[in-house]
Design goal:
Blueprint: E1 5-9, H1 14-26, E2 29-36, H2 43-58, H3 60-63, E3 66-73, H4 75-84, H5 87-96, H6 106-121, E4 125-127, H7 143-157, E5 163-164, H8 172-194, E6 206-207, E7 210-211, H9 217-232
Parallel strand pairs: 1-2, 1-4, 2-3, 4-5
Antiparallel strand pairs: 6-7
Helix pairs in contact: 1-8, 2-8, 6-7, 8-9
The structure holds zinc ion.
């Protein structure tokens, strides 16, 4: 019987870390991938290695399933985003209601490369932390977008390529709760210490919920979710 296996898009942030644990609890073999597109907060990429090695240390059952990790260079995506951010288009983004952090097409590109890698590696499904509950501004995080991408990849590669999004309908409090369900206090602690969410890349300030500036939209969401989860326990 074929091994059930997954490729997790693991950026080093809170959401993708929970997705990684979710996949390790569910699949027999799991590999990870991240994309370097010259993102402003490269600290997220730096967190990945530490998180992965501590996860291996603290969860031996998952260590046995966790395969290779890769970081793909997609610098060209940063190039396209930069040149597209002209004054006129920047205003257009604001008028559309999308946050200025929106990188057009980002998840579409990520999924396509992840799909190609999964094909080559013989992995059955893609797993990503896309979520439409908190980040309603990002059209490439919607389930409908994932379904369309899964269909395009399945057709274009002539192989089933489902895209699993376990956090799609969860808010940030529920994401903390899921981490607790999957790996208890050890996993929650690891996510607090070794994942990164802050848009400004700040790792100098330590809060209950982890490191960050504490005021950017990403920190705000993470902090509020943490507070709500703690209050509801
Ligand atoms: Zn921040």
């Amino acid at each position: 019987m074929a091994t059930s296996s997954a490729l997790v898009l693991f950026s080093g942030g809170q959401d993708s870390a929970v997705c990684l644990a979710w996949a390790l609890a569910r699949y027999e073999r799991v590999e990870t991938v991240a994309f370097d597109y010259r993102q402003r907060h490269r600290v997220e990429l730096d967190c990945r290695g530490v998180f992965l090695s501590k996860l291996r240390e603290q969860f031996p059952a998952w260590e046995a399933k966790l395969g290779e990790d890769r970081v793909l260079d997609l610098g060209v995506l940063g190039e396209v985003s930069d040149t597209a951010l002209t004054r006129e288009q920047a205003i257009g983004f604001a008028e559309s209601g999308l946050p200025s952090t929106f990188v057009p097409g980002r998840n579409l590109v990520f999924l396509t490369f992840a799909g190609a890698m999964a094909y080559r590696r013989g992995l059955n499904v893609l797993v990503g932390g896309m979520c439409e509950t908190d980040y309603s501004g990002y059209p490439d995080c919607r389930r409908a977008t994932m379904d369309a991408m899964a269909k395009a990849m399945t057709l274009g590669m002539d192989r089933s390529m489902p895209v699993e999004t376990p956090l799609m309908s969860l808010d940030k409090a529920q994401t903390w709760a899921l981490a607790d369900d999957l790996g208890g206090g050890a996993l929650v602690g690891l996510i607090v210490e070794e994942t990164h969410t802050c848009y400004l890349g700040d790792r100098s300030q330590r809060h209950d919920w982890g490191y960050g500036c504490g005021t950017c939209p990403a920190c705000d969401l993470r902090a509020k979710g943490w507070a709500k989860w703690r209050a509801g326990r």
